[in-house]
Input
Amino acid sequence: MKNSKVTYGILLITGMTMIWFFYACAPVREFMRWKTFEGHSTFSYQRPGFDSTKETVILVADNEGTEIFDLMAPYYLFSATGKANVYVVAEKKEPVIIRKGLFLLPHFSFDEFDSTGINAKVIVIPNLSAMDARHQNPKIVNWIKKHYHDSTVMLSVCDGALTAAATGIYDGRPLTAHASDYAAIRKQYNKPQWVDNIRVTRSGSLYSTAGVSNATDGALFIIDTLWGHQTMLGVSKLINYTASPQQTAHKSTPIGFGDKIAIGKKVLFGKNRQIGVLLQDGANELELAAVLDTYNRTFPKSLESVTLTSSSITTGYGLTLLPTASLDKFHPDELHVLYPDKLPSKIQFLSEPSVVVSYDRQNPLYIIDACLNRIQLQYGPRYTEVVKRLLDYN
Output
């Protein structure tokens, strides 16, 4: 009888521990989860106008999943030059799942873009959903190959290197990727000339960047080359970015065992918050993407994009974005607002003003740095270093 009670007690404690561990690890599952679009499929697709006197930049998106900063940072930067037609093109004219975390309406499907006869001067390849050679989407790979010519400028961003390598265009040419994925990608494709410890590679008209945050450097490097140094400096000033794209030295430091321990401690014993990011009309695409991507790497309990009044918003340069949640059902611990001056005087969904996290426009700071400064106050310098490594921001 005594042994039975002991056994029962052990089983009860084990079961309770497993339940606690399952719920405590929710932030890890959230980090790995790709949302699926469940709304209606009929939209009013709009796109910026076409100017035949300007070069055209296309950003390739994967409907099944595309990294947010990899796509939206170059989209903003090329658009801000005022010297390019900039479009997002996907295989299907359906919402693109953007990690992390919103949905985006592409401007063209592959077939639609083909029918226009437009010749793209620049092709940008973000990190797409396929994460190894066996799962590459051949339609995306072949479409890129079809639109690449000797005069085409190509930019592979972060783990877009997987897709770039699959095209064969980078065979024998320099190519880099996110520090934490570099070794694995290199094993899958051995024909490119893989290099690390560099933010941006260039070989003729072929460029590539290290992970996530370096999308800014890659786009600025190409802007400098195509439209001149003054144009590049003007665009850099808009985002308060002071690093020169010509300074390409980079510490390719992958996530290590100690970093994983730090993540585990934060997830199991730290404050795992529900984070909302408000989508507002006219939003700066780079800033919005930076907030979502940086805070995703804090392993929050949940991370959602929301709107106050409508089902979609239009960004400053014409992207149509759809939220992942509604404020009447999702109640964040933090609601990040890039433009607090545009908020209505009363927000009925928020009972505590302290929930709103606003960004200081009087003290200009590059948006990733602003996010990291706040994360350091919340979680300390050690965990901030983890977030920087996850962004490859070194």
User: Anything to note?
Assistant: Residues 11-26 have pLDDT under 50 and may be disordered. The two ends are 61 Å apart (CA to CA).
